[in-house]
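I wish you would study the pair of lines that follows with an eye to the fold:

===
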Amino acid sequence: AEKGDSESICFVRIEWVLSEVFKMKVLSTAGYYGSGSSAITDLMKEYSDIYTDSDFEIMFFFGYYGIPNLHYWFSNGRRFQYRALRDFVKSARVVSRLGRKMNYEKYFNGNFMKYTGKYVAALQGEEVGPLYEIDLVSFTEWQRTVWRILNKVHELTNAVYNKSHTDVRQNHTKLFTKKTYDYLYEISEGRFIQCTHDYLSSLFQGIMGDNQSIMVDGLISTANIDDVSRYFDDLRTIVVKRDPRDMYLSDKYIWKTKVVPKETDSFIKWFRHRMNAYHWEESNVLCINFEDMLFDYTSTVAKIESFFGLKAEQHIRKRAYFDPRISIHNCHLWSQYPDESKAMKIIESELKEYIYPYENYNENQIR
């Protein structure tokens, strides 16, 4: 509010009071690819007063073309704000209707593009007219070849013109140019964060119903939790870690996604990098081991309840979605692959600080 504007100041105070009363609690998980974070999502489906849909992984908002990219260009880049906003909207349209696990219109009850449009309008500056853009990076090889040839022609005609005129021409071919619109943006970082907060709150509150909190799968990664937390009233994240030997074997023999390196040395470097690439010093984060959810189920569940602010009596469908007696089959996989004994010894030696102490537990502890 402007100094001296009492009505605006009053409105801001009322808005602040309302935000304090209607704070939205968002529960999330993060892991290190295949470390078992989905176990938390499954566990939360057993509780009352929590909205969760584990069929959807909501990764768009804080992905490559998501809100962090917008935040950077609006706060630091300035020059390419219109591009960042254009990429955001383009990506939003894609995920709004792409497949079963990326159909955001379905997940947000048909309101995804509606609220995205309002968000863009809140950020949008004053239009300053059309802009004709040449994006050489996105050209195919043949397009670049044709563009270079025609541009040589332009250079020759420009040279002839410039010999007899004082107004120097430097124009290029308009082939493959795209018409877009440029805007003047004048928005502070604080205002950007507030607009983003309102955008996300509108989307998630629209699907929560009467539930007290919402469990969102895939919302963030361990690398940017602090960056994401500022957009929410109350974001609580559980980071799940898992024995690297099981992660290595799971992807190599079961999932076969090729995301996890198959070569032992490469896997060790990859795993160590992932474990050290985290950013949550200022956020509300709880770290747990996937294996503790099996061998120390009762106390680990109690720890999760305390962190998420849940009551034990809300756990009304125990083991209906997460059953340690079933998940135990995802552990100690090297016993099924004796040919990997050499690789297991190397991983145990190089990543010893991440090895789970299986020798202290046995399957008889799981009830």
Notes: The radius of gyration is 26 Å. DSSP finds 15 helices and seven strands in the chain. The CA atoms of residues 268 and 339 lie 18 Å apart.
